[in-house]
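Page 42, continued from yesterday. The earlier attempt failed because a stray header line got pasted into the input along with the sequence. Redoing it now with the clean sequence only.
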Amino acid sequence: MFTGIVQGHCPVVEVADDGGVRTLTVALGELADGLETGASVALNGTCVTATSVSEGNARFDLVRETTSLTNLGALRPGDRVNVERSFRIGDEVGGHILSGHVACAVQVSAVQTSEGHRLVSVAVDEPWSRYLTPKGFIALDGASLTVAELDRASGTATVSLIPETLARTGLGDVMVGDRLNLEVDSRTQAVVDTVREVLRDSAWVREALAAGTGP
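This time it went through. Structure tokens are written below.
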């Protein structure tokens, strides 16, 4: 589990393909301290497993589902990724609870930059846009953010990035057309799905009673 507080913006040093599995080697530096093989790490918000750790570098295997669903499959040596180690019980949760299970990669549709401030808009299609709410949580490339604006008609969500976020993550460099990994808030998803099921069942009961076939 993760909190969406990015701890490092680290370079990819090697990309290789081996029998349908892509491997990434990332220079984690001090973030590799104490990291053991088999531990979970979030790369651009995607939970992956460390398969080897040596001298500040960690290697991760990416299966086809990961490379097709997220933006990790497009990484090349020299690119940088947002990194967060999994949190431990008792750690401060400064963002919101994340699983690292990316819903999809969304495209940046607009960027507005002013001094010390940046607005980034992304296009979020159904079914994932139903889990977004104004002032609600959203994670883009592993960074815990607040939805500043939500246009359901166009399926666009906008986040406001403060200088600290711009300095600690790669979101200060994104451009229109870039793809960012999206994870929706699991609590919002659970509530929305539960309400939808209740309303669907209620509609079925009403229709059945009107037809004389209900319970």
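Notes: The two ends are 43 Å apart (CA to CA).
Reminder to self: strip header lines before submitting.
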